[in-house]
Design brief:
Layout: H1 5-39, H2 42-47, H3 53-66, H4 71-83, H5 88-100, H6 106-113, H7 115-142
Length: 143
């Protein structure tokens, strides 16, 4: 397939228009993430867990999916959760979902990649995060 300069220029112009259209959505997502990160106290995360590892993994995954932020922040919160006695499986599920699942980012992802794809990707990431959390903790237990 031969790409002409004209086709390349048209593709660049379409990409630029899509990018400009997405900027308000992206800014809104960042503002919402910052608002939630500021609004939800860090102590809330530790109080949300029950002490039952599999339930805590599900709770961790749910909280991580809804709470979004920078990955580095998840490690700090994860360390604090471990210090407060939250199980390792819950912390791993929380961190994995914090980074890979984005309920807050879903509208932006849906508008750019399609609603079906965004929902499917988030669902698969959620289920995979719980499975990976269990497998990681089991592997660490073996080592």
């Amino acid at each position: 397939m031969h790409l002409s300069t004209k086709n390349l220029k048209q593709a660049g112009q379409r990409t630029w228009r899509n990018f400009i259209t997405a900027i308000p959505i992206i800014i809104g997502v960042f503002l919402l993430i910052g608002f939630i990160d500021t609004l939800v106290p860090k102590e809330f995360y530790a109080r949300a867990f029950s002490g039952i590892p599999i339930v805590d993994a599900l709770v961790g995954a749910l909280i991580g999916s809804i709470s979004a932020g920078h990955p580095i922040t998840s490690y700090i919160i994860g360390g604090e959760l471990l210090n407060q006695g939250v199980s390792m499986v819950a912390v791993v599920a929380f961190i994995l979902c914090w980074v890979t699942v984005g309920v807050i980012q879903l509208p932006a992802e849906s508008s750019m990649l399609g609603k079906k794809y965004a929902i499917l990707r988030n669902g698969v990431a959620f289920i995979s995060a719980i499975a990976m959390a269990v497998l990681i903790v089991l592997t660490l237990g073996i080592l």
